[in-house]
């Protein structure tokens, strides 16, 4: 639409110039005719830049940063700038990964960590979304729910782990609940903001057209809250990984954290780095998946991201 408006304005400017040129001398008319194409070309270039934003999206751009980080790691290890005692070289990490996979049941630890993160993230996402709907669509719900959620925001969830241990013990229940609570907050906050950001004129139009509440929720409210929900999901994925790293240090009998705890006791730096790399890969792939879903689900929305 902005392209049409700009070209329309360009047409008005050119026609005005031509009208003025009709009453001017022949030299003035020639000057106006010469400058009009230049002005039109400048305007077209401005339209293209505005439509493209800061630049065309590079394919596979998400992998550029991790690739550069890996290149710095390899280069620093080869040049001797990064000592093996500080950070294990990448090739030694790959070797240790094979050792853990073949002789120490690394696959079982990966599965256990993914299960904890997945269950906690699913529980937190569902809870946060439902609470956001109740709070965002009802004044009574907002009065009851929003206040406690804001209080919880000021209390770090990781600081509640000792209390959760006293309530739920040190088993899987405590770990999943901690991850769920960390994931719930960003889902609630961003979904609630998305609901509150929906233009009130849509509700007035629905009342005027006598649209049923269920239809209004499905076709207006939920699509309007979707951008906020997906943004919250990206934060929730990161929070789930943070919670997983911490809770797996508490009496875990399996998982990446359990593997790293044992490696710390025996001074096996390479095993610790393997665990850190796995955590990083988890988080990166999960965030990339959410961004892909966001790009597909919000394809109707044109932003500077493209």
TrEMBL record:
InterPro entries: MetI-like, MetI-like_sf. The chain crosses the membrane at residues 60-83, 117-141, 153-170, 176-195, 216-246, 266-286. It is found in: Cell membrane. Residues 106-290 form the ABC transmembrane type-1 domain. Keywords: Cell membrane, Membrane, Transmembrane, Transmembrane helix, Transport. CDD domains: TM_PBP2. It is a multi-pass membrane protein. Belongs to the binding-protein-dependent transport system permease family. This is ABC transporter permease. It comes from Catenulispora yoronensis. The lineage of its organism: Bacteria, Bacillati, Actinomycetota, Actinomycetes, Catenulisporales.
